[in-house]
Specification:
2 copies of one chain form a homodimer. By secondary structure, chain A is mainly alpha-helical. Chain A has 2 domains: about 60 residues, Homeodomain-like (Arc Repressor Mutant, subunit A); about 140 residues, no CATH class. The first copy, chain A, contains 10 helices and no strands. In chain A, helix 1 packs across helix 2, helix 5 packs across helix 9 and helix 7 crosses helix 8. The first copy, chain A, starts with 13 loop residues before the first helix and ends with a helix. At the A-B interface, helix 1, helix 4, helix 6, helix 7 and helix 8 of A face helix 1, helix 4, helix 6, helix 7 and helix 8 of B. The structure holds a DNA duplex.
Amino acid sequence: MATTPAPRWQRLDHDERRRQILACARRLFSERHYAAVSTSEIAREAGVARGLLHHYFRTKRELYLEVVRALVRVPSHPVPEADDGRTVEEQIEDSVGRWLETLRRNRGTWLAANGAQGLGRDPEVEAILEQAREHAIDSLIVAIRPGDPATAPPELRAVLRAYSGFAEAASLEWLERRRLTREQAHALVVQGFFSIVRDALPAVERLAPQPGRASNGNRKINHVRKAVQ
Amino acid sequence: MATTPAPRWQRLDHDERRRQILACARRLFSERHYAAVSTSEIAREAGVARGLLHHYFRTKRELYLEVVRALVRVPSHPVPEADDGRTVEEQIEDSVGRWLETLRRNRGTWLAANGAQGLGRDPEVEAILEQAREHAIDSLIVAIRPGDPATAPPELRAVLRAYSGFAEAASLEWLERRRLTREQAHALVVQGFFSIVRDALPAVERLAPQPGRASNGNRKINHVRKAVQ
DNA sequence: TACCACAGTTGGCGTAGCGCCAATAACGCG
DNA sequence: CGCGTTATTGGCGCTACGCCAACTGTGGTA
């Protein structure tokens, strides 16, 4: 009576195995930097042979880039929801609140993607982060200005990116260095947004290379400027 | 007549050789990420044997960290000079101008240190950047508030760090994405500073956990608040 | 129930890169 | 000019990565 021996390993669905490996890699890459994580360790963690990693992600680096893509799913700064008739103030207030809550829940993920500063240009990683951030800027533009965000003047995008850097740094003060309470971080990000849009943005537009380029289509922004204090 | 054969290699002073290797490593690490640069390549670039790298910097990683320390010598945001009797406004205006000029001259260095976002926490690198930034914050505090910067309330440091993130992002828009002219970047950073100190800072202080903690010693900040618009 | 084909999975080979150390040679000094 | 100091080299050992042929679990089929 030859009983069939117990399987030495389990055969998983392609996507499921891929997700499993990715999850382990994500955890390890979030804790330590690229060079300090070996493929053997990721494989051991996932309970598979090292060769399997190369089957799903050709190289260690491609696995890493896949992790980066997964990490930037958590937005780097507050993004308003679609316009629902509320005032811009309410939308911003609310989006910042929701965003901070998201950060708290995904603390580790977000810190890995935004809190850590590597060094040395890494074009592929930069491209991924860049794309995610520009996309988030689009949402911001839609909230404060009607029309297609693609037609927004570059100065506006630039100022909002500066604001984005402001919001990220402020959040780090709450999440990581704990020099701000959550309420303070909220107030700082919200007030910062309105101040920057009201004061800094027009200061930049006044110096536009081609005068008059950004002189129309700012109805909603002007509304913000008047509404805040 | 046995003429002495030409030396096959030159024996340099300890510090000089060290600087030379560091310079090559710095160039390579600025162009590519850590894993994409090999010690053999650095050694070849410097015209020395690979073993010599390990003599001066025990490991590849320590060499890398040394490069990081060298890179953060370029400040990440505008830092006023020592108080020279001018108004705060003049000092800020001037410091931003000087800072942007520094950035332009050290474009590659600064982009490598601040433009690139790696991924995965790297405590040692973070510690280096952290220290440099906090030190820069001190200079800012001295400019806008009398007394020892060490006694400044944490909220103030937090707000200035947020401003620092703002200034860095704004500078990237000028240096890298070229959506701002230099004049626009200047106006944005200066106006952003005053707006944040005038509007965002008090909003944060109002929510201080221990009421009244930050209620004194803000004479000069109040002066800024009144002076700007 | 037994067989079969597909593809998920393994294990090991070849190579490159890093850490280390003993031997070597350039340079200053008596 | 010889000698000691130490900057510098070259090679050994090990680990990690990329690749691939062989293996095996799994679901379908007669």
